[in-house]
Amino acid sequence: MRVLLIAYDFPPVPSPQSLRWAYLVRELALMGHEVHVLAPDVAGYGAGGLPEIPGSVQVHRVYPGPMAGLLTSRAQRRQARCAGAESSGPAPAQAPADPAVESVPEPVLNWKGKVRHAVLGAPYQAIRLARRLLGFRAFGRGLNWKGELAERIKRFMSLWMFPDSRAEWMPWARRRLDQLLEQVPPDVVITSHEPANSIELGMHAKSRGFRWIADLGDPVLAPYTPERWRRRAGDLERRLCEQADIVSVTSRAAADILHARHGLPLGRCLLLTQGFDARFSAAPDEHGDICFDPQRLELLYTGSFYSFRRIDALLHAVLATEGVRLNVATIVAPAELVRAAHEHPERVRLLGFLSHRRALALQRRSDVLVNLANDDPVQVPGKLYEYLGAGVPILHISATADDATARLLAETGVGVFETDDPGALSARLAALVQAKREGRLPCAQRGPGQLSDYCWQSLAARLSAHLAPAD
């Protein structure tokens, strides 16, 4: 079948939604489907290592709007300069350094810098603090003043653009969508949310008579939706439930919410969780130069931090327990984590923003993978599904033992739950340290059928079965 995916986030962007559709597109193409992708021409960030998209997939890039276009142009010029510098010859030899640490000197401000400091305020001060404490760019992107200013402009645009500044691509996306619907008419159009503006493009395709599958990460009206957009988000969610032929969701709880709010029949709802790549195999150079100590219990957390995803209790437990080291790979480290890494480098190690493939390889070498629960007990973090493929036990930290993640781990036997309490966590870590010393650290047991439903290959097969209308 011919599939047209509309996705704002798609490689080279390394977001969770981009990874989701990179894997699903790859698998659909390998099944023999003709896949087209409509996506903005935006610059990626981070260290790369994203899933390789088959050559048969046609990605149609469109102008992302004035602000995103300007940032992309700047990024492309910067990449071209870096490529030119690399081709000019090898750099002088330097002393080896920690691979996860980039040395950055403390900036000396001239008068323009002082003005910038006064205008940008707290974000700039936070970055200076991290550099002063750790001597490196702790925040993956390492924004300079231009980057900080751009972020502020995007936040301002998001005050009047729904759902946020990414809506600026809509005029160009709609024009290109109409061309594709004429030139390569698809059997089915799929929209990837977030952001929510892709939903309006799906509605446009539906109004022209095309089958439409709406893929939702979370409900459009979510707890984090800004108050100014809640009514509009709720209305868009209602119209989506009325018009989409299939609504795919990442959790049963999301399906229940849509059914309760808008009467969405469960028969039109497809459960497509996040997943792991059953095809992954680390190349020799992807094992990397990040070493784990066989004499210590090596914990690993790979992912982002939010106000609802806190690490305080685990930090206290790690610092109170001998023989444990917490390793964290993230784009933006919380202040308390930065401080702990500076004050206790033997207990807490920041690895920076790793490429996707390096993160997967590192997960498979750790002793225990850490998962931090969201505040909403019905949500299962997408990172948890990625962990499932590592074959390493998972320590899930939550305020309640009855959340959806704890139930999933109990069903699959790949991890344990511990309450979000420093004392209880310290006792759990001490037991794991002793278990490792005695050679009885539990392995993640993956019985037949227990985890196969959560690999991207199975999820893509489930999606493929719904591309065409049911007989």
UniProtKB/TrEMBL annotation:
Region Disordered, as annotated, extends over 79-99
The record's listing under InterPro entries reads: Glyco_trans_4-like_N
Question: A single GO molecular function, which one?
Answer: glycosyltransferase activity
Q: Could you tell me what this protein is called? A: Glycosyltransferase subfamily 4-like N-terminal domain-containing protein
Using the record for this protein, list the coiled-coil segments as residue ranges, or answer none.
none
Q: Which domain of life is it from?
A: Bacteria
Q: Per its UniProt record, what Pfam families does this chain match?
A: Glyco_trans_4_4 (PF13579)
Biased composition, class Low complexity, residue ranges? 81-99
Domain Glycosyltransferase subfamily 4-like N-terminal residue range list: 155-270
Organism the protein comes from: Arenimonas terrae
